[in-house]
């Protein structure tokens, strides 16, 4: 495997997707001149060039790519070399129609788009592998190539006959016998019992699917998602191994998409040398959501990651592609580094002349020169980042772990009832938001993490409790840990069958409660909760009706027929405790519960004073580097603890009267 240290690169990579192949050669020189002015030191190339570098089944053509690599190498660039396998060449589709995908509605696709290959097509696999191998043979020894970028944003699904056959093989390996499979999927229901493996069909709109995102049998649908994630992962591993034959060291990645639902990224990250991802917040995405996604990407390997893509200004594919306001791209970039990134890369370096991304922002705009607002901001950031290599490989220490589990996400969102608006990422984010607002660092952790590293483990809507998870959490709490969980937890096993004997199943004993019923409230309805100190708040969505079995109640409902019954509880268990929140609380109420949790567990903010600024630090052996960023509209005073220190970016000494306007950033180093 590749380099395995915390520090993958010798400098902060600053650059991004670069497609000179789409432009006449005269432009290339001009690109180099302009990029130099922005301190760009890196380019990701060859991302969608399959049709160019393999114009037919029998021929490769590398002359142009050779020239691009040579030009960038001469300029001293750190090159991120992609393998081009994310968009099929037309000749392949014409000759081998099996390489395209069949969609959820059973429609076999023709040539077009990208991310369009059937992962289980042997023809696709053969040519993708061969191409990766050719590239590695040719460029694997080039010292300027610092990273391999396999494919691009793996994702989507295929429901073709090849995939169906591969699914049966995958299931056979997992279940061994038809009986075990029937049991796991509860196939006695509606008489769906299967007697032969080849009776199994893929769960889509033509079979078990209900609408776009529900299913009659979650067991098969969740298994299909696992299978599809594994199929694409096999594609990644195949190219990775092909590259490894010729290049033993250079890190290999593929660009992930944050909280993208389709792939189990924790499983993927185990196969990647370094995680990279593409960050495209919408105009109204809360900054806490972006921070959470960064923390998740860092959490995948517990290591710094790469920001493979962000736009310098606007996107083209959102419904409303607003410009980044002056300073916003810079602030977003520092937030990215603050949460663990060691690179800042853009999509893209020069704006396309045609096709669907011509309105997507780029470092060089259609006007073709560097006298633009966006370019000036890119150049300023480039200049600043040159001085920040000390950040590379440093840590983000955290005492709070929030569990994120793709299996659980799939199961929770497939389930029919009790509430259609229940969305996994939003629920996790509502808890993350508390820690973000308080500037308490968080690790996003997998369900099989070593919980003992954390003072507090937060696991909202932990609907699916797989084998061994209940025991591991009990062990953690017994030894003194604090677990926070919520409604819709402990309900099903890995196949979406209910843990019988009362909710929340395997969590019931340590939570010291029994949930007898779950009420669902329509969007226009709400209930109220009253805490023991008399304070009253609103709650929505789902309301657990529960009995105390040793836990104390921190708050009760105050209306409807279950008024006076407990809704928020705390239970001592071993040396630790479990908090259970039986409804969707309004933010202020959740803050109140989590204030108690953090105070009791002695988990504190990175600074002592309350502030609306985002304050984070990364830590190396020598120092703590604080990132102080203002994402709110109004000016904010600098926290007192930084007065008298120097801002690394401006060089200014920070005073009592220092304020941060929206998108201002201050960096302070505190030696250890
Ligand atoms: C994705 C892709 C890029 C580009 C950008 C546009 O992240 O990886 O090729 O299409 O979106 O935002
Ligand atoms: Zn397929």
Task: List descriptors.
about 675 residues, alpha/beta, 11-stranded mixed β-sheet, 9-stranded parallel β-sheet, 27 strands, binds alpha-D-galactopyranose, binds zinc ion
Write the layout of secondary structure elements.
Blueprint: E1 13-17, H1 25-37, E2 42-45, H2 50-53, H3 63-74, E3 78-82, H4 90-95, H5 122-139, E4 145-149, H6 161-175, H7 178-184, E5 209-210, E6 214-215, H8 218-244, E7 252-253, E8 255-256, H9 265-269, E9 276-278, H10 287-301, E10 305-309, H11 328-338, E11 341-346, H12 373-385, E12 400-403, H13 406-414, H14 424-437, E13 442-445, E14 456-459, H15 469-478, E15 482-486, H16 508-511, E16 513-520, E17 527-531, E18 536-548, E19 552-557, E20 566-573, E21 576-581, E22 583-585, H17 587-601, E23 614-619, E24 623-629, E25 636-637, E26 659-660, E27 665-671
Parallel strand pairs: 1-2, 1-11, 2-3, 3-4, 4-7, 8-9, 9-10, 10-11, 12-13, 12-14, 14-15, 15-21
Antiparallel strand pairs: 5-6, 16-18, 17-18, 17-19, 18-22, 19-20, 20-21, 23-24, 24-27, 25-26
Helix pairs in contact: 5-8, 8-13, 10-14
Bound molecules: alpha-D-galactopyranose and zinc ion.
Alpha-D-galactopyranose binds next to loops.
Explain this structure.
With 672 residues, this protein is α/β, with parallel strands linked by helices. It contains 17 helices and 27 strands. The strands form five sheets. Strands 12, 13, 14, 15, 16, 17, 18, 19, 20, 21 and 22 form an eleven-stranded mixed sheet that branches. The chain has a nine-stranded parallel sheet with strand order 7-4-3-2-1-11-10-9-8, covered by helices on one side. Strands 23-24-27 form a three-stranded antiparallel sheet, covered by helices on one side. It binds alpha-D-galactopyranose (GLA) and zinc ion.
